[in-house]
Structure to design on (290 residues):
């Protein structure tokens, strides 16, 4: 990728043009997908965009047709049955099994291949694999962003008393913790909504990677992504020693486990607010039907 190609791409409103490619494909796929859809299912769309900037003609002004020539777009549509929120059996079971990603600020196809070796360390009950920088600070999941609601252990250092903390709308001396973007996590859309919701309703937010060594302070936990929106966490497993991740299989790892008691009050409030936002900000199906 040459500097000239990059400069030419920057001169275009290329993000909106790529979005146009995706929307065109969704418009073509939607009628067929709706015929296959059942009442209890939702549609899950996955777009894979690839491109070759070498196809841009040097020293010529790039336009919309150039973007369509440079980028290829493949759309996958599947049926998805969402899990009912609030049932313990529908909670996530997590296991920390690998290091954080080198390129975490965007979704890219190579990540599917790169995370495959982690599967050998997946315990049978684990529904999602977590990543950590050091075996203590948890960054994110392979497919999700990770959050904990944590009791503050530094109220005196912060100059805040428990009485002051309990003046928040929900009267809990808890804060939401999730790893910062700068720490190497995907800036998920739902992650952003969760933070906005918490700030709006008075739940303190601290963008810091939750520390496993302080797990006794964790009261609730959940994961988010664009498909499941928000799912409460039932259990988290972490290797007793970070060096055990060189093991060949999950059976060779000695695990520590933390269990949560289902979705509790604050997670439920956040989930309800996220659903409200999704309904307000989502794109109606009719927008993709001609």
């Amino acid at each position: 990728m040459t500097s000239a190609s990059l400069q030419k791409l920057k001169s275009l409103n290329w993000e909106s043009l790529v979005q146009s490619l995706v929307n065109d494909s969704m418009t073509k796929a939607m009628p067929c997908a709706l015929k296959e859809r059942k009442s209890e299912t939702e549609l899950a769309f996955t777009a894979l965009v690839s491109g070759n900037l070498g196809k841009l003609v040097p020293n010529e002004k790039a336009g919309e047709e150039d973007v369509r020539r440079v980028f290829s777009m493949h759309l996958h549509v599947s049926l998805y049955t969402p899990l009912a929120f609030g049932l313990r059996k529908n909670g996530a079971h997590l296991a920390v099994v690998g290091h954080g990603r080198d390129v975490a600020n965007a979704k890219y196809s190579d990540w599917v291949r790169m995370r495959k070796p982690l599967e050998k360390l997946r315990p049978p009950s684990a529904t999602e694999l977590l990543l950590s920088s050091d075996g203590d600070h948890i960054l994110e999941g392979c497919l999700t962003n990770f959050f904990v609601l944590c009791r503050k252990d530094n109220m005196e250092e912060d100059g805040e008393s428990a009485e002051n903390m309990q003046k928040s709308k929900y009267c809990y001396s808890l804060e939401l913790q999730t790893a910062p973007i700068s720490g190497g996590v995907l800036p998920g859309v739902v992650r952003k909504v969760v933070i906005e919701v918490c700030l709006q309703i008075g739940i303190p937010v601290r963008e810091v990677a939750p520390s496993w060594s302080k797990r006794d302070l964790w009261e609730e936990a959940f994961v988010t992504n664009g498909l499941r929106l928000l799912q409460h966490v039932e259990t988290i497993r972490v290797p007793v020693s970070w060096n055990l991740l060189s093991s060949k299989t999950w059976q060779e790892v000695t695990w520590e486990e933390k269990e949560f008691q289902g979705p509790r009050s604050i997670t439920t409030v956040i989930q309800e607010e996220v659903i409200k936002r999704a309904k307000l900000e989502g794109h109606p199906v009719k927008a993709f039907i001609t």
